[in-house]
Every structure is written in C-alpha cells, then in structure tokens.
Amino acid sequence: xxxxxxxxxxxxxxxxxxxxxxxxxxxxxxxxxxxxxxxxxxxxxxxxxxxxxxxxxxxxxxxxxxxxxxxxxxxxxxxxxxxxxxxxxxxxxxxxxxxxxxxxxxxxxxxxxxxxxxxxxxxxxxxxxxxxxxxxxxxxxxxxxxxxxxxxxxxx
Length: 156
What we know:
Elements lengths: L1 H12 L20 E3 L4 E3 L7 E7 L4 H14 L5 E7 L4 H11 L6 E3 L7 H5 L8 E4 L5 E4 L3 H8 L1
Parallel strand pairs: 3-4, 4-5
Antiparallel strand pairs: 1-2, 3-6, 6-7
C-alpha cells in the first residue's frame, strides 16, 4: 500500500511539468504576432533591432493599467526602446477613454477586442495575470514584469 501511495505522489508531481503555467520566461524567444490598429498594422518582427517593451493590460485591471502608464512614460525617455502596449478591453470606447485619461503617448498602443478569448492572450499565457516583457534586439525576453525603475537599469 505504501508503494502505491508513493508512486501516486511521484506521478502527480510530474503532471503538467512540460507546460509553463505562468507566461513565458526569461531567455525565451517572444512569439511573433501581428495586430492592427485604426491607422496601422504592427508586426512584432518589424521592431527587431531595438529593445521592445511589451505591455499587456486592461482598463479593468488596476495594477496592469498603472504599470502600463509608468512604463509608457519611462519608455518615452529612451530612443533605444520601442513600447508596444496591448489592452485586452472588449470595448473600443473604454480603451480610448483609458488612453486619454492615462495620457499614453506610445504610437504602438493597441486594443485586442477579443479580450481574454484572443489568440494573443493565449499565446502569451496571460490567464494568471497581465504581464510585461522586455525583449532584446533579437526578440529574446531579457526581463519580465519589470517596473519603470528596472527599465532604467536595463537600458543603462
């Protein structure tokens, strides 16, 4: 009986170990994506050669929204970083009002109107919370969930 219980515990400890559950990790190549705004089409691959800060957020998620604002203002101080801000709000009007109130100045600010049902949401494994990623010039994740002060450190 003890052998059966021990074997069960061992087998349960390996379930799901192949699949990261909390987003992507440092050292991973960021998955490419294409997103279309009102006036432009943006492909992540087009930004390679620069540091890229990906910020995923929604107006209803206060921590991700505040982090997006702080990172947007910090990134605007550095020419070597391009910020891509993606909201998962399901209503364009809510997104537009949030951008206006938060004074987001990045030209690469988009809304994914399919929200949490979108392919982008699944690709970046955001089901346990919105994240941000700093990519190097080759599209490799060098930092995750950074704040504005940490961004300064990475870029200096």
